[in-house]
Specification:
This protein is of the alpha+beta class. It is built from 8 helices and 10 strands.
């Protein structure tokens, strides 16, 4: 069994190569006050353990740092925007690794409604379209499926209203953005005009997309068989499915299988951390 920091490694732990990439993005201990005796890598490993296993903070294993310490750092770095900075920097790295420009020129917009656990907070509601009580996750991803903006809110809000709050996050930060792909749920004249005036981009409606109940990237033809739909095409067909694997990636992590956070900001931080973890895995393959 591999050893990490004097203990047996968990599957969620960072490898040496992954920590080498992540370490410059993690705040260093303060030079004022007492000396920090818990290494930053172990704090991050403990947070990743919660993300992967879905356990409550209080049930962290005893060979990891105390849950109060881990939770304090998670909340502090959330307030300081550290998780967002990490995800955005890794996004640039992984696009350059793929031979692409760090700034995307195409965005794909969609939302996912998830159930909430018995958590406090008023940011919960009922999605009358999907018949789910919980919260709604909005993502704007690039053509590779990596997010450019993340928003979590109560589920009762319509997709265009949430999309407006989501898209305000990227104003001035994605200078090459030329097209935003969206499905029929966003095809409201007021919303389309607002986006075009704000970004000077084209908002495209993808009517040819298979129905929601069809498996991703699959379309049933008259023969009764499923045929794979290209992930990206010059036309409209296939573009929206780029965002579907993005939701599937984070849903595999037990902490994000449903929303159990008291604040939407904590949910957004965990989603950013989940994509950061996946990008680290692609940049430096190792344990998952």
């Amino acid at each position: 069994m591999k050893m990490t920091m004097g203990r047996r490694a968990y599957p969620s732990d960072l490898t040496d190569e992954q920590w080498e990439i992540l370490e410059p993005l993690i705040p260093k201990p303060s030079q004022e006050g007492r000396v920090a005796f818990i290494e930053r890598r172990e704090i991050v490993n403990a947070i990743l353990y919660v993300l992967r296993s879905g356990c409550p903070w209080r049930q962290l294993p005893h060979d990891l740092p105390a849950w109060q310490t881990v939770y304090w750092y998670f909340q502090r770095w959330e307030r300081e925007g550290i998780w967002k900075q990490i995800w955005q920097e890794l996004h640039r790295l992984i696009r350059m690794l793929a031979g692409r420009d760090p700034d995307p020129c195409v965005g794909i917009l969609d939302s996912q409604t998830v159930k909430t656990g018995p958590v406090r907070g008023s940011e919960k509601g009922y999605d009358w379209v999907k018949k789910i009580w919980g919260r709604k996750r909005h993502l704007l991803v690039d053509s590779m499926g990596w997010p450019m903006a993340i928003l979590v809110e109560a589920a009762q809000w319509l997709d265009p209203l949430g999309a407006e709050r989501l898209l305000r996050q990227v104003v001035g930060h994605v200078p090459r953005l030329a097209s935003i792909w969206a499905d029929a749920a966003y095809h409201q004249q007021g919303f389309l005009s607002w986006v075009q005036n704000l970004f000077r981009v084209r908002v495209l409606r993808t009517q040819e997309i298979p129905p929601h109940y069809a498996p991703p990237q699959l379309q049933r033809h008259a023969t009764g068989k499923f045929q794979k739909v290209p992930r990206l095409m010059k036309g409209k067909l296939g573009q929206r499915w780029v965002v579907e694997p993005s939701f599937a990636w984070i849903s595999r992590l037990r902490r994000l299988a449903r929303d159990v956070e008291g604040k939407p900001a904590s949910s957004e931080a965990f989603i950013a951390l989940a994509f950061s973890r996946l990008m680290l895995q692609r940049l430096a393959p190792g344990s998952s």
